[in-house]
Recover the amino acids of this structure.
């Protein structure tokens, strides 16, 4: 199916769900296509908004994160400006709404992101050996372990999240089992250089 | 008091800073005026039979300006607007309007009455913003006075007089009295002779005395400018007690209270009668049919002979080919598109940070401020809500819309709150000024520009060091101002050094139009 055609199908599906609040008063209708305002055209990610790439994200991982934002397991730390913004968006999502978003995101074609982080790839590869057990040798992710793919994500976003885990802005919630694991693992990254190094290595792993 | 500034030292000080005229040229950092100018009439070439297609991305004021001016010259313009309305950050909120904040969608519940509106974005027009005022005239937009400065409004700081609100005139009269007394004392010392003539010295002393309302012996003993405690019409007025000098100095906001209405924020200010979006409506009366709404750009590809835009509308991806493109889409949203911009251009796009200005408003059940002698104007508070604006219009009506918060640079504080928390914070802050505030206000709206759909920011922030630009910042500004391949122009107040004004948006559009005109003339003539 061509990209355009697929978009039509999915958007048409969503379109029926939008415009919910048209009521007695003939109020200005709204639509629910908020994702691309922040996350960029076709979910390509937007550095300026610090909103990650959604295109290509595993459906199970996207669903879990939306649920985490909804409950406040993620995005509740007062210093996490972008997390707070996402939480305000997710807080009123229904299960059906989350399923719609996951389906919509799944319709976007994946284009490889540009590399924006500089680091020592060799050192990064050594560090990554500790990550590979969960995230896979090629950072392809492992659903059984709840570990998302890392390759193919915006590198600046990986850096931000590693910092967020390290300083407890993410993964600090006792109900966030996977986040807590990641928070403890992130402590092997001793400084900003080691974060840049490991992300630089992930950048070399490419993606289909 | 030790070591008063002597007259000579005072003059030396003036000389070393280049004097008053140099200070005036120092620019917008002090809220002073940019160079005055008159409205420009654009001398653009009218196209003959051979038209040119122009894609305008964003229905903000600069985009509308481009469509209007090029339309007059025979260009074929299409405006793609992502949201449901034109005007961008000219946003007047009335009964039933949608406030499309991501994660906090609101419908305005104000009563349905023409004077019950709130300018949630642009709200003031300085009287030297000639180009904007000229368009208002041309487009039949009626204007009225916007009252900013009001000496009967309040100033409140928890650090000052146990947090009791003070009338602005009371604070000002006292601080000016003490300042003048210091100056007069320095004038009276033995150095009186040199560089002034006797007459000059006398005149200067006259100014100082008048500035501070000094009494005999050049002493400040209070002033009727503070307002009377009692009387003043039939009975003799009883002067208010002087606020002790040291008490006046307990606030860090004194300077701001004294100078809040200098430069562009000073009188006379204007507003569009009936709401600032009457300006948008004026443009739309000329170019409205060119606007496609809910048309969200997803890709911009610039080639040597034109621009191709991809956008989503009605659930389908569409394409628009044009000879030229003018984009007032915020830089921080453009970085989320598919595009083929040069890397230097992208670097600059990524550098500009998005503003986080925040406003909130209430409908007041009655115009309680008018009972307190306040007609229009602004109360300043040293808290996060910062301002209360009393409406300049609808005086003596039953109800009114009151601005309950305006934080231009520190808007994230409230943005990060839930709607309920925001409102509670503004009510608590407002209660310090008007004790019955909680029971007098209703139907709140909040405008968190950082999260508004299709905006995600208020005025662009260029310089990281407030008040000055680095060489690199200037270079990036030039990079973004210049058209890509002579085809893609970035416009809007974001591409000016004086962001957040409507005049700036228009001036950026004019700059781009004149640049385009040179290219078109070179091609056609």
């Amino acid at each position: 199916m061509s990209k355009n055609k697929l978009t039509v199908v999915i958007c048409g599906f969503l379109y029926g769900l939008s415009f919910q609040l048209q009521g007695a008063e003939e109020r200005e209708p709204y639509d629910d296509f908020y994702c691309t305002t922040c996350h960029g055209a076709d979910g390509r990610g937007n550095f300026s908004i610090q909103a990650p790439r959604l295109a290509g994200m595993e459906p199970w991982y996207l669903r879990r994160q939306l649920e985490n934002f909804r409950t406040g397991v993620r995005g509740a730390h007062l210093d996490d400006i972008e997390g707070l913004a996402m939480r305000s968006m997710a807080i009123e999502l229904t299960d059906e709404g989350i399923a719609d978003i996951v389906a919509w995101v799944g319709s976007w074609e994946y284009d490889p992101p540009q590399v924006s982080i500089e680091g020592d790839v060799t050192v990064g590869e050594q560090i990554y050996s500790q990550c590979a057990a969960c995230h896979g040798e090629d950072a392809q992710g492992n659903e059984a372990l709840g570990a998302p793919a890392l390759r193919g994500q915006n590198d600046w976003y990986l850096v931000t999240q590693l910092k967020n885990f390290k300083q407890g802005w993410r993964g600090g919630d006792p109900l966030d089992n996977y986040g807590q694991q990641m928070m403890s693992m992130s402590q092997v990254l001793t400084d900003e250089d080691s974060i840049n190094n490991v992300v630089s290595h992930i950048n070399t792993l490419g993606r289909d | 008091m030790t070591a008063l500034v002597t007259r000579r030292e005072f003059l030396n000080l003036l000389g070393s800073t280049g004097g008053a005229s140099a200070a005036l040229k120092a620019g917008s950092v002090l809220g002073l005026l940019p160079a005055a100018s008159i409205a420009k009439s654009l001398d653009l070439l009218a196209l003959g039979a051979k038209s040119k297609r122009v894609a305008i991305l964003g229905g903000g004021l600069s985009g509308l300006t481009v469509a209007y001016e090029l339309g007059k010259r025979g260009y074929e313009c299409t405006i793609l607007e992502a949201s449901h309305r034109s005007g961008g950050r000219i946003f007047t909120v009335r009964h039933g309007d949608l406030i499309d904040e991501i994660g906090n969608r609101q419908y305005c519940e104000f009563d349905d009455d023409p004077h019950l509106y709130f300018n949630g974005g642009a709200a003031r027009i300085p009287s030297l913003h000639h180009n904007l005022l000229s368009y208002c005239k041309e487009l039949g937009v009626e204007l009225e006075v916007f009252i900013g400065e009001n000496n009967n409004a309040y100033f409140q700081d928890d650090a000052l007089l146990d947090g009791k609100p003070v009338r602005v005139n009371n604070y000002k009269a006292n601080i000016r009295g003490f300042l003048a007394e210091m100056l007069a004392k320095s004038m009276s010392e033995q150095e009186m002779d040199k560089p002034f003539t006797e007459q000059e010295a006398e005149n200067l002393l006259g100014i100082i005395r008048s500035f501070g309302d000094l009494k005999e012996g050049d002493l400040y003993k209070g002033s009727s400018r503070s307002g009377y405690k009692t009387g003043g019409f039939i009975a003799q007025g009883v002067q208010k007690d002087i606020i002790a000098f040291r008490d006046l100095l307990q606030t860090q906001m004194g300077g701001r209270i004294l100078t809040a209405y200098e430069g562009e924020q000073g009188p006379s200010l204007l507003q569009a009668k009936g709401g600032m979006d009457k300006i948008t409506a004026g443009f739309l009366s000329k170019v409205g049919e060119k606007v496609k709404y809910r048309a969200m750009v997803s890709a911009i590809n610039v080639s040597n002979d034109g621009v191709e835009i991809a956008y989503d509308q009605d659930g389908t991806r569409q394409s628009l080919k044009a000879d030229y493109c003018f984009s007032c889409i915020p830089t921080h949203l453009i970085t989320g598109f598919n595009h083929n911009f040069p890397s230097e251009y992208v670097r600059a796009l990524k550098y500009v940070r998005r503003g986080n200005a925040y406003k909130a408003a209430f409908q007041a059940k009655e115009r309680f401020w008018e009972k307190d002698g306040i007609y229009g104007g602004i109360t300043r508070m040293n808290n996060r809500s910062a301002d209360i604006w009393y409406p300049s219009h609808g005086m003596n009506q039953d109800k009114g819309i009151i601005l309950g918060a305006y934080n231009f640079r520190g808007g994230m504080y409230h943005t990060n709150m839930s709607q309920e928390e925001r409102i509670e914070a503004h009510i608590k802050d407002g209660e310090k000024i008007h004790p019955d505030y909680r029971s007098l206000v209703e139907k709140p709206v909040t405008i968190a520009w950082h999260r508004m759909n299709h905006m995600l920011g208020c005025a662009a922030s260029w310089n990281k060091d407030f008040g000055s630009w680095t060489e690199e910042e200037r270079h990036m500004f030039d990079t973004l101002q210049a058209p890509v391949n002579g085809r893609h122009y970035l416009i809007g107040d974001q591409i000016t050094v004086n962001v957040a004004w409507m005049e700036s948006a228009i001036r950026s559009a004019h700059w781009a139009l004149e640049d385009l005109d040179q290219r078109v003339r070179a091609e056609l003539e």
